[in-house]
C-alpha cells in the first residue's frame, strides 16, 4: 500500500516538488534504522544497553556450556538456572531498543507527511 501511495504522490507533483521530496528521502532501510538508534540524545544509552546485552549473552552461553558439561543434577541446576536468566535478560535488553527504532520510523513518517501537506498548501492559491 505504501508503494501505491508513493507512486500516486510522485505522479501528481511538479519537478521542484519531486526534488524536495527526494531530499526528504524514502523510508530508511532496516540496518540504517538500527544505526540511527545509536545517535541523538539517547544514543549513549542504547550503546550501553547493547554492550550490557552482549556481555549478558556471552555469560549466558558460557553458563549454558557449563550446564551441558555437568555430570550431576545439582551441578547442572547450578549452571542451568543462571544460563536461562542471563540469556533471557539479554533478550529483554535487546527488545528494549525496538521502541526507539519504532519512534524513529514514526518521526520520519510524520516529517514526510508534513512535507507533503506543505507542498499541497503551496499548490493552492
Report on the architecture of this protein.
It is a single chain. This protein has about 120 residues and is mainly α. It has one domain. Helix content is about 85%, strand content about 0%. The mean pLDDT is about 80.
Total beta strands: 0
Considering DSSP H and I runs of 4 or more, what fraction of the residues is helical? over 70%
Q: Structural class, from helix and strand content?
A: mainly alpha
Main sheet specs: none
- Name the shape in a single word: rod-shaped
Give a quick set of tags describing it.
0% strand; 125 residues; mainly alpha; rod-shaped; 6 helices
Write the layout of secondary structure elements.
Elements lengths: L1 H11 L2 H10 L5 H7 L6 H27 L3 H23 L2 H26 L2
What does this entry show, briefly?
By secondary structure, the protein is an all-alpha fold.
